[in-house]
Description:
Elements: H1 23-33, E1 35-36, H2 40-50, E2 65-68, E3 97-100, E4 113-119, H3 122-132, H4 137-140, H5 142-146, H6 157-168, E5 173-184, E6 193-205, E7 208-217, E8 222-233
Antiparallel strand pairs: 1-5, 2-5, 3-4, 4-6, 5-8, 6-7, 7-8
Amino acid sequence: xxxNCPESDASDTAVAPNNxxxxxxxxxxxxxxxxxxxxxxxANNALLAAMGFSPSRSSEPNGEPSESTExxxxxxxxxxxxxxxxxxxxxxxxxxxxxxxxxxxxxxxVGDYVRFTKPIExxxxxxxxQVSGDTNRxxxxxxxxxxxxxxxxxxxxxxxxxxxxxxxxRFPGLTVYLSQDLEFQAPVEIGETVTATCEIxxxxxxxxxxxxxxxxxxxxxxxxDGEAIVIIETQSDA
Length: 238
């Protein structure tokens, strides 16, 4: 799995003193980064481990089950489930926040959404590098990253994109990933807080849904844009 940007050498163009990269660099970023993530589920497993999740014990051949029994959390308020396991692949943390438009799997409709917010900490980056094997110096070595166009270390793209998976896990019912398209539009600095939003845009039938997926910084800048297709099923009480 590739990282947020192809690894850069010390000869890469250094950022301007204000750390603002040029429009050309931005366009190049978008062009290089736009791709369909064929192994996104595998990357999610690495992300879940890095973020403290336990991967699901059972796996669908074409997707990743994610069960959620978590209560809605309003941004700015500590989750009621902080530090307590609530399902196979989900638990709360005092720095994480969740908002969703419905608590009923049966009532899902176009426009329903889940938002998940968390800071991308240095510990997340280190853990993700360890479990994924992506030890690109751009993410880990300050002296190297300082000489690139980014002017410092940035988070792995798939680490940041994994917050989309975290949001999907918080839809009511059992969510199974079928596909995910991603476009990385801007880097995320280590320490930034991001919000992933997954909104249903089309009902495909047979409990399948098409969703618009985005990740934004606290300033409202979209850093990842994409589309997912998932199955969302009612979870039995058995």
